[in-house]
């Protein structure tokens, strides 16, 4: 049976997006790395520095499992559009698993690398890799049952995959039920994704807002991504700009050091024609953590162009294109805008 193209496209573009890995390794707050230095670099999104630190540690101790996994993530996330680096990271992931088959972080890093590779594959090849990705998350969860990232990402796969590829909402609900008492926030974020798949936007919002005050880094990432997803539903085509703004303001309050809420709020202001305020918010978002996760300079350039500032818009567009972490689809659009500017 051939899967409909629209379903395949949604699977690859929506579900397998770049993830900033976080994991809860025990009942207390924790992260993907037990080593404080590696985790600090990872949490700050300093992936080039993470790669360098991992290489230094592996030279001193080739058997360092966390350094091996850190090298995978650093190579993968510092320049995710670079196929050669992603393949080098994939080789490192295989080595990590070969040397440390029972260490969860090696499997987690391998899953993240494969997710990024799938985004750069042709559709048919990417779909053939879904089973391997699912197996990687299953193995990670087997080795570390309290991992927020592994449980949530596996649940997302089950929700999105059609039954013929091993997916089902029932399987996602089993993952949710297993931690409903022990990890209630993890269970709630899974319910957020189940509601999103069913397009039950009100239910999704209720579950999201109930996660106010979450502290775990993996949960914060999930809340951020899901809130941005829901807000975009309301932002698109001006469907409900007030609702979108409310969600972005929620993110600003809950995660004031992150770019997401300010970037989203800037998009609302741009949609309302409030270009000066939009530009101010875009500029602020550029200075905050996670700025590279969003096409801020793309949108900032658009706002400047709408104001008639062609010279500044051109400079911002060129800065966006030079960003190695910029998504190809946005880069293509910006190149077209630049071509029109001459």
From TrEMBL:
Signal found in the keyword field = yes
What keywords are assigned to this protein? Answer: Signal
* Record-annotated membrane-spanning stretches: none
Query: Which first-to-last residue range defines the signal peptide?
Result: 1-30
Q: Tell me yes or no: is Membrane among this UniProt entry's keywords.
A: no
Name of the protein this chain belongs to: Tetratricopeptide repeat protein
């Amino acid at each position: 049976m051939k899967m409909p193209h629209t379903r395949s496209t949604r699977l690859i573009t929506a579900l397998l997006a770049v993830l900033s890995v976080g994991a809860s390794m025990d009942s207390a707050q924790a992260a993907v790395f037990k080593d404080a230095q590696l985790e600090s670099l990872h949490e700050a999104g300093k992936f080039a520095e993470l790669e360098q630190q991992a290489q230094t540690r592996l030279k001193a101790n080739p058997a360092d499992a966390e350094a091996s996994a850190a090298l995978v993530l650093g190579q993968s996330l510092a320049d995710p559009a670079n196929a050669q680096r992603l393949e080098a990271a994939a080789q490192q992931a295989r080595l990590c698993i070969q040397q440390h088959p029972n260490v969860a972080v090696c499997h987690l890093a391998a899953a993240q690398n494969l997710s990024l590779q799938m985004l750069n594959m042709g559709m048919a090849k990417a779909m053939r890799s879904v089973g391997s990705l699912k197996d990687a998350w299953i193995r990670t969860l087997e080795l570390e049952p309290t991992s927020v990232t592994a449980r949530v990402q596996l649940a997302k796969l089950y929700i999105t995959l059609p039954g013929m590829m091993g997916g089902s909402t029932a399987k996602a609900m089993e993952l949710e039920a297993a931690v409903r008492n022990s990890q209630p926030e993890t269970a709630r974020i899974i319910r957020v994704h189940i509601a999103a798949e069913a397009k039950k936007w009100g239910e999704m919002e209720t579950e999201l807002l109930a996660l106010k005050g979450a502290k775990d880094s993996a949960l914060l990432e999930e809340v951020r991504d899901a809130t941005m997803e829901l807000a975009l539903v309301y932002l698109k085509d001006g469907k409900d700009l007030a609702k979108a703004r409310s969600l972005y303001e929620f993110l600003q309050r809950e995660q004031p050091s992150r770019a997401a809420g300010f970037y989203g709020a800037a998009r609302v202001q741009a949609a309302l024609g409030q270009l000066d305020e939009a530009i101010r918010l875009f500029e602020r978002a550029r200075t905050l953590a996670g700025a590279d996760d969003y096409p801020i300079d793309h949108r900032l350039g658009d706002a400047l162009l709408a104001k008639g500032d062609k010279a500044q818009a051109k400079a911002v567009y060129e800065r966006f294109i030079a960003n190695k972490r910029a998504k190809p689809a946005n880069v293509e659009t910006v190149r077209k805008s630049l071509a029109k500017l001459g």
